[in-house]
């Protein structure tokens, strides 16, 4: 489904965690959600019908159902439900044990941290993301915009690249 290795959807949990797999399906284009429910799940057309009338922000409900159903098929019900709970916690400003993590030595420049956390493939891409105001750090008291790739991160928190990708930064002991 993706043109690059990073954009690929892997069925093997060694190559893509259940959480990342779930997030992939939650983040499909709005126009694809109903079509994918019909193509990739075993839901009946009657079960899908109520989702067909959803528009705008409400389509997220269909995308969450899509993600849950497909993740259940590939990773099992327990992993799918854990992924759903983790995503809800993370995207409502909380933390989850099942979210992606990066354990690293701190302090570290945000440009380097983005690469270490897997949110940017290179330092130059990390700088572009920062210049584009796409990087935020949440230390538990709200998100702070990162405006310079040389700024040091010296404490743990959730590192955001855009609105949909988040990694918990953990300080190595």
Describe this structure in words.
- This protein has 173 residues and is of the alpha+beta class.
- The chain contains seven helices and seven strands; from the N terminus they run H-H-H-H-H-E-E-H-H-E-E-E-E-E.
- It has helices at residues 18-26, 30-40, 45-52, 59-75, 77-91, 110-116, 123-131; strands spanning 101-104, 108-109, 135-138, 143-145, 152-153, 157-161, 165-171.
- The strands form two sheets. A five-stranded mixed sheet has the order 1-7-6-3-4, covered by helices on one side. Strands 2-5 form a two-stranded antiparallel sheet.
- The longest helix is centred in the middle third of the chain and has 17 residues, at 59-75.
Characteristics of this structure?
Tyrosyl-Transfer RNA Synthetase; Structural Genomics Hypothetical 15.5 Kd Protein In mrcA-pckA Intergenic Region, Chain A; single chain; 2 domains; five-stranded mixed sheet; two-stranded antiparallel sheet; 44% helix; alpha+beta; 173 residues
């Amino acid at each position: 489904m993706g043109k690059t290795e990073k954009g690929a959807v892997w069925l093997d949990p060694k190559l893509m965690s259940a959480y990342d797999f779930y997030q992939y399906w939650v983040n499909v284009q709005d126009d694809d959600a109903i079509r994918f429910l019909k193509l990739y799940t075993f839901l009946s057309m009657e079960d899908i019908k109520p989702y067909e009338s959803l528009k705008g922000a409400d389509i997220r409900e269909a995308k969450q159902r899509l993600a849950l159903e497909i993740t259940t098929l590939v990773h099992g019900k327990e992993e799918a439900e854990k992924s759903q709970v983790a995503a809800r916690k993370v995207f409502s400003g909380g933390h989850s044990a099942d979210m992606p993590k990066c354990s690293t030595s701190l302090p570290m420049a945000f440009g380097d941290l983005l690469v270490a956390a897997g949110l940017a493939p290179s330092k130059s891409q990390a700088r572009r993301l920062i210049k584009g105001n796409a990087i935020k750090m949440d230390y538990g008291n709200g998100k702070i915009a990162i405006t310079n790739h040389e700024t040091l991160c010296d404490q743990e928190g959730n590192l955001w690249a855009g609105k949909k990708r988040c990694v918990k930064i953990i300080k190595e002991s």
